[in-house]
C-alpha cells in the first residue's frame, strides 16, 4: 500500500536482523532547569509489540514521548534506535528513522483541508525541480482510500479538518502515521477524548498496526484500554518508572491497582473520614479498591 | 468474569466501507455559495464596485491611458503586497517593508554613483542587502520567538534612521545623485521601469511583472510543497513542526521573499526617477498590509490567497488615481482608503459567514 519512493518519512533501510529493540531508553531522564520531569526510565520497544506507558497527569508521559519523537532532548541516560545511541534535534529526524507520533493535540492544522493535512510534511510531488508540483489527484485518492480503510467516510476531502469531530481527527492522524510506513508508532492518549465506539476503532487500529510488525508505544491512563492491546506495561509515577512488566507477569487487577495508586486511595479515605465525618462504611474497603473498576468512566482524562 | 477473555487482544482491521459511500451529513452547497466562500471573491466584487463607481463619477477614467496609469499605481503596491500576503498567510508581519524598498534603492544608487561602477553592480549588491534584511527579520523572529510586529518595528526604525543618516553622510543631501548617465542604466531601466505601447496606450512594464508574479505566487501557494508549508506554519506552527515541516526555513524564506519584493520595487523607483528621496517609504508598509487584508488574507495567518491582494492593490490604485480624475481634493485619499479598508473587511466577513454557514 505504501509507495516508498514518494515521501521522506518512509523507512529507507530494512529493520535490523534479530529481535533487538527498535527503540530503547536506558536510564533516560529530562530536566527543565531545576525541574526534573523524568528520571531513570528504562523502556524497550520491539517490533510487533504494543508497549503501554501508563501514568497519572504529570507523571512524565508527555516528556517521555517528546524525547522519543525528537521534540525535546534527553538530559541523562541513553536513547538508542536500532542499538545505536541517537539524539534527535527535530521531529523530522525521528520521522526519518521511522518513528511517527500521533499527538494528544492531534497535530493537525485546523484551517487546512483534510487531504493537505494527511500529507502535510510528506507531500507527494511530480515533475522535475523547477516545476515540481503537488500530485493533488493522487494525494486525494490515497487519503480517501486510507481513511475508508479506517472506517472514516468523508463527503469532501476539501473541508477544513477543523470541521471534523475529535475522533475523526484522531483517526486521520493515526491513518497518516501508519500510511507513512512508521516502524515505531507513538500514540499519545489516543482514546482519551473519544467515545466508546470510537475508542474501539482506535484500539483495533493499534492491534492492526502491531500485526503489521510495527512497534507501538501506547500512552494512556486507562488501564482497561491498555490491557486490551498491550504486550508490555510501564507505569510512571512522579517522573520515575514505578512498574515495568510483561503481559505474562501482571494481570489487569494489579495494573489497575498500580494506576489508581491503591495505597494513596486508602490514605485519602482516611483523611476524608477525619475532615468531614464521611461515612467510611459506605466507601469501598481497601481490598475492593484493587478490584477491576467496572464503573470507571470512559476516558478518565 | 475471566480476565483472560476480556484481555484477548483485538485483532484485525477496522471494517472497511464501500468505496462510493458518503456519510450523508453534509449537504452539497451550491457552486455559487462555494465560490463566494473563496477568500478572493469578496475583494473581487469590491474592486468591481470601486471601478464602476469611478467609471460613473469620473469620466476621464474611461480613457485607456488613464486605466494604464491606474494599473501602474496598483502594480507598485501590488508587487509588494504579494510577498507581504504570503508572509501574512505564514503567520507573520513585516512593518519594515516600506522603508526596505527605499533602503534597497539607496544602496544601489549610492554604491554605483560613489564608486562609479556599472549600475548592475549596485543592483546586485542591493539584492543581497534586501535579502539580508529579510533574513535578519526572519532569523530574529524564529530564534527569539518574539512577535514579528516587535522585531520588524525595530527594523523599520533602524532602516528609517539609517536611510536618512547614511544618505546625508554620503551625498550631503537627503536625495541621491542622478545616475541616469551611468553604465548599464538603460539596460536596467528596460527591465525595471520601461514603457511599451499597446494600441496607442503607454503601458508600464511593472504591470506585466505584477501579473506574472501574482500567477507565480498563486501556483506556489496552491500547487507546491512550499505553499503547503506556508499555510501550515501560519495555521498551526507547532503541529507543522511535529509532522516534519521545516518551520524555520519557511518563515525565514518568507521574510526574504518580502526582501526580494522590496528590492524589485526599489529598483523600479530608482530607474524610473533616477534619484531616490531617502525619507520616503514610511507608511507604505501599512498600505501593503491593508491590500493583503482587503485581499482576504487572515491577519492571524493560515488563510488567504495570492490573487486577493491583486484585487486589493487594484482597489488602492483605483482610488488613488480616481480621486484625481474625479477632480476631488487628493487630500481625501487616505480617508477614503480607511473607509474602503473597513468596508472591504466587513463585506468580506459578511460574505464568508453567509457562504460558509451550513
Summarize the structure.
The complex is a heterodimer of chains A (301) and B (358). Chain A has 301 residues and is an alpha/beta fold.
Provide a descriptive summary of the structure in words:
The complex is a heterodimer of chains A (301) and B (358). Chain A has 301 residues and is of the alpha/beta class. Chain A folds into 2 domains: 23-250, P-loop containing nucleotide triphosphate hydrolases (Rossmann fold), CATH 3.40.50; 261-295, no CATH class. In chain A, 33% of the residues lie in helices and 22% in strands. Chain A has 10 helices and 12 strands. Chain A has helices spanning 61-69, 91-96, 114-119, 136-149, 166-179, 196-211, 223-229, 252-260, 262-276, 286-289, and strands at residues 23-32, 35-45, 50-55, 76-81, 84-85, 99-102, 125-126, 133-134, 184-188, 215-220, 232-237, 240-246. In chain A, strands 6-9-10-3-11-12 form a 6-stranded mixed beta sheet, with helices on both faces. In chain A, strands 2-1-4-5 form a 4-stranded antiparallel beta sheet, covered by helices on one side. In chain A, helix 5 packs parallel to helix 6. The longest helix of chain A has 16 residues, at 196-211. Chain A is globular. In chain B, helix 5 (97-115) packs parallel to helix 7. In chain B, strand 1 and strand 2 (201-204) form a beta hairpin. The model of chain B is unreliable at 1-21 (pLDDT under 50). Chain B is built from 15 helices and 2 strands. Chain B has helices at 3-7, 31-36, 39-57, 64-89, 97-115, 119-144, 148-171, 185-192, 205-223, 225-235, 237-242, 247-273, 284-294, 307-325, 333-356, and strands at residues 195-198, 201-204. Chain B is an all-alpha fold and 358 residues long. Chain B has a two-stranded antiparallel ribbon. The chains are: A alpha/beta (301), B mainly alpha (358). The interface between A and B is large, with 56 and 42 residues.
Amino acid at each position: 500500500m505504501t509507495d516508498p519512493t514518494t515521501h521522506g518519512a518512509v523507512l529507507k533501510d530494512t529493520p535490523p536482523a534479530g529481535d533487538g529493540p527498535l527503540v530503547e531508553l536506558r536510564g533516560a531522564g529530562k530536566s527543565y532547569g531545576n525541574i526534573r520531569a523524568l528520571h531513570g526510565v528504562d523502556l524497550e520497544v520491539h517490533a510487533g509489540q504494543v508497549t503501554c506507558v501508563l501514568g497519572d497527569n504529570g507523571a512524565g508521559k508527555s516528556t517521555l514521548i517528546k524525547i522519543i519523537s525528537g521534540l525535546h532532548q534527553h538530559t541523562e541516560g541513553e536513547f538508542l534506535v536500532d542499538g545505536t545511541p541517537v539524539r534527535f534535534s527535530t521531529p523530522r529526524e525521528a520521522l526519518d528513522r521511522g518513528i511517527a507520533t500521533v499527538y494528544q493535540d492531534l497535530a493537525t492544522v485546523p484551517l487546512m483541508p483534510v487531504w493537505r493535512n494527511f500529507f502535510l510534511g510528506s507531500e507527494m510531488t511530480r515533475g522535475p525541480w523547477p516545476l515540481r508540483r503537488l500530485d493533488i489527484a493522487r494525494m486525494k485518492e490515497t487519503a480517501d482510500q486510507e481513511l475508508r480503510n479506517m472506517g472514516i467516510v468523508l463527503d469532501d476531502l476539501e473541508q477544513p479538518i477543523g470541521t471534523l469531530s475529535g475522533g475523526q481527527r484522531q483517526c486521520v492522524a493515526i491513518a497518516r502515521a501508519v500510511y507513512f510506513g512508521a516502524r515505531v508508532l507513538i500514540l499519545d492518549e489516543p482514546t482519551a477524548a473519544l467515545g466508546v465506539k470510537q475508542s474501539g476503532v482506535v484500539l483495533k487500529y493499534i492491534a492492526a498496526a502491531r500485526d503489521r510488525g510495527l512497534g507501538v508505544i501506547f500512552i494512556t491512563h486507562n488501564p482497561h484500554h491498555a490491557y486490551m492491546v498491550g504486550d508490555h506495561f510501564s507505569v510512571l509515577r512522579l517522573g520515575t518508572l514505578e512498574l515495568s512488566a510483561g503481559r505474562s507477569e501482571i494481570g489487569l487487577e494489579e495494573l489497575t491497582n498500580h494506576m489508581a495508586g491503591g495505597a494513596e486511595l486508602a490514605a485519602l479515605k482516611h483523611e476524608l473520614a477525619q475532615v468531614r465525618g464521611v461515612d467510611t462504611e459506605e466507601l469501598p474497603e481497601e481490598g475492593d479498591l484493587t478490584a477491576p473498576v467496572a464503573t470507571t468512566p470512559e476516558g478518565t482524562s | 468474569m475471566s480476565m483472560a477473555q476480556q484481555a484477548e487482544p483485538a485483532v484485525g482491521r477496522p471494517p472497511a466501507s464501500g468505496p462510493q459511500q458518503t456519510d450523508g451529513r453534509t449537504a452539497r452547497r451550491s457552486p455559487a455559495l462555494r465560490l463566494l466562500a473563496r477568500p478572493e471573491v469578496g475583494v473581487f466584487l469590491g474592486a468591481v464596485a470601486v471601478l464602476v463607481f469611478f467609471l460613473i463619477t469620473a469620466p476621464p477614467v474611461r480613457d485607456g491611458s488613464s486605466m494604464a496609469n491606474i494599473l501602474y499605481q496598483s502594480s507598485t503596491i501590488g508587487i509588494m503586497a504579494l510577498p507581504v500576503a504570503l508572509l501574512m498567510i505564514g503567520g507573520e508581519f513585516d512593518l519594515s517593508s516600506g522603508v526596505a524598498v527605499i533602503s534597497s534603492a539607496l544602496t544601489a544608487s549610492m554604491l554605483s554613483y560613489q564608486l562609479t561602477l556599472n549600475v548592475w553592480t549596485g543592483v546586485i549588491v542591493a539584492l543581497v542587502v534586501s535579502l539580508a534584511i529579510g533574513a535578519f527579520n526572519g532569523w530574529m523572529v524564529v530564534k527569539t520567538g518574539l512577535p514579528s510586529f516587535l522585531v520588524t518595528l525595530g527594523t523599520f526604525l533602524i532602516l528609517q534612521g539609517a536611510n536618512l543618516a547614511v544618505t546625508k553622510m554620503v551625498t550631503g543631501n537627503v536625495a541621491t545623485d542622478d545616475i541616469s548617465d551611468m553604465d548599464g542604466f538603460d539596460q536596467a531601466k528596460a527591465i525595471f521601469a520601461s514603457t511599451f505601447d499597446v494600441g496607442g496606450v503607454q503601458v508600464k512594464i511593472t504591470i506585466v511583472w505584477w501579473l506574472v508574479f501574482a500567477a507565480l505566487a498563486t501556483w506556489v501557494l496552491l500547487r507546491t510543497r512550499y505553499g503547503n508549508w506556508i499555510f501550515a506554519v501560519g495555521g498551526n506552527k507547532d503541529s507543522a513542526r511535529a509532522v516534519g515541516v521545516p518551520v524555520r526555513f519557511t518563515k525565514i524564506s518568507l521574510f526574504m521573499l518580502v526582501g526580494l519584493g522590496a528590492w524589485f520595487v526599489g529598483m523600479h523607483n530608482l530607474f524610473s526617477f533616477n534619484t531616490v528621496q531617502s525619507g520616503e517609504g514610511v507608511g507604505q508598509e501599512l498600505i501593503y498590509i491593508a491590500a493583503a487584508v482587503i485581499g482576504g488574507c487572515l491577519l492571524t495567518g493560515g488563510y488567504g490567497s495570492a490573487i486577493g491582494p491583486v484585487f486589493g492593490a487594484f482597489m488602492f490604485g483605483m482610488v488613488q488615481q480616481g480621486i484625481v480624475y474625479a477632480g476631488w481634493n487628493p487630500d481625501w485619499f487616505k480617508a477614503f482608503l480607511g473607509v474602503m479598508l473597513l468596508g472591504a473587511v466587513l463585506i468580506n466577513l459578511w460574505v464568508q459567514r453567509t457562504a460558509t454557514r451550513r
